[in-house]
Amino acid sequence: MSSALLERATARTRWRSWLYRGLGAAAAVGLLAVLGVLIPLDWVTTLSAVYMYIVLAEGWNILGGYAGYLNFGMVTFFGVGAYTAGVLCTQYNVHPLLTIPLAGIMATVAALLVGVPALRLRGVYFAILTLIISFLTQVLVTNLDITGGASGIYMPSLPFDPFTNEQIFYYAFLGLMLLAVLLAFIIEHSRFGYALVAIREDEDPAEILGVRTTWLKTQALLLGAFLAGVAGAIYAFHTSYIEPQGTFSLDISIDVVLMSLVGGLGTWQGPVIGVPLMLVTAQVLRILAGELPFFGSTLPPEFDRVVFGIILILVALLAPYGVMGLVRRVRGRRLTV
Amino acid sequence: MMRHAADVPAGSGAPSPNGLASNANAGLSMRGVTAGYYSHDLVLNNVSLNARPGKVTVLLGPNGSGKSTALRVLYGLLRPRSGQILLDGREITTVPPQRRLALGMALLPQGRSVFPELTVQENLEIGGWLLARDRRRLAAALEGVYARYPSLKEWRQKQAGSLSGGQQRLVEIGRMMVADPRVILIDEPSVGLAPVIVDQVYEEIARLKEEQRTILLVDQNVRAAVALADYIYTLEYGRNNLEGERGAFEDRLEALIKSWLRF
Amino acid sequence: MLTTVSLSLLVQALVNGLLLGLVYTLISLGLSLTLGIMGVVNVAHSTLIMLGSYLALELLQRLGLDPIISAVIAVPVFFLIGVLLERLLISRVARTSQTTGLLVLFGVLVVIEGAAILRWTTDTQVLSVSYTNTSLTLDGIAIAVPRLIAAAIALVLVLLLDTFLRSTLYGKAIRAMSQNLDAARISGIDTDRLSLLVFGLATATAGVGGVTLAMIFPFDPQDHYRWLAWAFLVVVIGGLGSIRNTLLAGLLIGLIETLSSVLFPFQYVYFIVYLLLVVALLVRGQGLAGSQSRAL
Description:
The structure holds three protein chains of three kinds.
Chain A: H1 3-38, H2 41-66, H3 74-91, H4 96-118, H5 123-143, E1 153-154, H6 162-188, H7 191-201, H8 203-208, H9 213-239, E2 241-242, H10 244-247, H11 250-263, H12 269-289, E3 293-294, E4 297-298, H13 303-318, H14 322-336
Chain B: E1 2-4, E2 28-35, E3 44-51, E4 56-60, H1 67-74, E5 82-87, E6 90-91, H2 97-100, E7 105-108, H3 120-127, H4 135-148, H5 150-154, H6 165-177, E8 183-187, H7 195-210, E9 214-218, H8 222-228, E10 231-236, E11 239-245, H9 246-250, H10 253-261
Parallel strand pairs in B: 4-9, 4-10, 7-8, 8-9
Antiparallel strand pairs in B: 1-11, 2-3, 2-5, 5-6, 10-11
Chain C: H1 4-38, H2 45-63, H3 67-93, H4 98-120, E1 135-138, E2 141-144, H5 145-167, H6 169-179, H7 181-186, H8 191-216, H9 224-238, H10 243-263, H11 268-290
Antiparallel strand pairs in C: 1-2
Helix pairs in contact in C: 1-5, 1-8, 1-9, 1-10, 2-3, 2-4, 2-8, 2-9, 3-8, 5-6, 5-8, 6-8, 9-10, 9-11, 10-11
């Protein structure tokens, strides 16, 4: 075959594969949109949680997955978003819809405060600092008057029946999730994404080659924080009551890291796979907890944290590229054979 | 006689490079070693060489030809992907570096390698780590080194990091000599040192040679190295290139150096 | 203008700060050791401290043992825990990427914290022994006895460790390893085995640190992040590789905490400490980053 012909043929297959992918994505989005009106209420709620975690995990993945800078305090930005919405809405009478973008902006500002001192340094210092900050923020929110202290904030509720309410939040989270996944997809295929991966692979040469690593890492953190802040604001309206223990719980940070890791760090598909997988695992563990014997009584439900920690260790050691790593290995084998 | 690697039949089982099959097992040798730091590039490609006992063997080559990597592999700091390392006929390919000293091997690494925040005395004590269980032997070994290098004794309470570059080099040599090694690998001994010190370093290597130690020297300072050499290997692009007795190289040195400058 | 009352209050804060600083030095040593010598940032460090507090609690409740004795028992117990952790996880992690190492240690944090909640619930605990609420009064300055004892234990351990690292051949080898890993290996030092020793020692100091903290403060399975913050701050200010600098930094943090709690409401201590941390990272960060070139 002549090379021109070959080129035209590969261009055609490439175009076709993009077409198929586009159609597949559109079908998936359509299906998810229709689900919102078809399935029962508790399923709608569960799926909303899945979408919310995908947003957080995609946001986390930008810095954590592509650039390898692990943020162990993702909940900080989520919580800042939730509280921004809560405080603005209840204390300053800002319109709820307006509080949502403002929450994203506040979370971004918080990310600047964390990122500027920490992102000039190597990943380990950043990681430990994020952990510390999420604890400090929790203490701060518990002790401030404006946040209602330990007693929290009651959010205004929407003037609809419960089912309509749930559907509204379903579509809100769905829209945000699509945005987050699209953003991750674009980043992964952009110069920005390649530069982040270069930072993960080896930061020194990347720096020498003129990659402005500190600014890139900061941008990645800010983008993730914005997504988390918006998700936090929607979450606040959804749960209708926020308080520091739950809203700033380390469990959320752990979940986000684990979900991204299990799905596959540094891939836009990772969170989409990891989040449902881990939420189902958590559900199974909760059911098991009621049945397994544990020193004469049944297991307390908190035992899922221990199991999650063990999964985190095992996946990090044995399958550091998560499900996507396995998929790629299988696919790679098929291509080379 | 100098010969080209192409004249030697390829493969890890190549006959002894100096043509003395009976001698092949003595000294330190590397057979058909392939090694690299990343999966996609090879720094050494099927390299074989032999450091004969009691002789100075010099490994030359342009920058990036794999000389230092060869030393790292020989000392166990980098594990080869294939091939073998033999010491007096015994395979030691996978013996970790911390056990090599006990086999009578030592490495003088390139650049500064003193422990800067320890005193000179403490640096030497670390060199005698293998004797640590036997305080008397350790003390005797240290005294031996102090007798050999009297200036070290003067500096014994100083922090090694506070010494000049040349003094630190002496501490490194002294630290290596505490264990009284038979086989010594030396990587770029003169890099970054003042010319006066460089001369002293080569005098010291000459002394090690007189003491019948087996020496494998990797050096950019081609003339000084060749002056000490009994046998010479050259590497190019991570492969064996030329090899032969010193005599065979002496008239070709200029041409060789000139050709490497192209790299 | 200082009245005599506020002056004695200030002196009392100074003394308390120094005592507290000794304890903070102890809880920071392990983090400094593993980071400086092995290049491992142990984010699970503070959960080991928390386990130390609960060891003291269990020994007191079950066997009626005084925390002073628990501090002694904690040394071998936590040394062993550290050795096990190193063998099972850290040694594996050292050969992989930094990301993997951090994730694994984060996993360890999650497991230990989760297990502690299962075993002891999230209730706040206090160690109460006969001298818990007693204090010595000297020239109008009151010093709480538990704080004095905790500081004494910390001081003894810090001095022992310093002596070990300075004067024994093993200690020198550990220092050599932290200054040049490859040079240590070619000098015949089995750095893998020394790492085991270092991690064991680091964990032992964390465990005893937990016992001493429990003598002073109430504790629960989740407030250990505070100690992680404090220990990290001490390490950032004190730098790596010198116990004396760690001690100075620990005393400084102790003083800042007590002095600022005299001047401001309690929770502001956190912000002052965070501010300090940010400033310290901005000033010293590059130095720390430089020592961080190898592995994890």
